Amino acid sequence: YLLLLRMFRFFRLQPPLAIITRTLHRSGPDFIHFLLIFCVCTFGFSSVAWINFGNRVSSISNLADALFTMFQMTFVDFGTTYTEMLQHDVTMARLFLLPFLLSYST
Question: Which end of the chain is more exposed for a tag (fewer CB within 10 A), N or C?
Answer without folding.
Answer: C
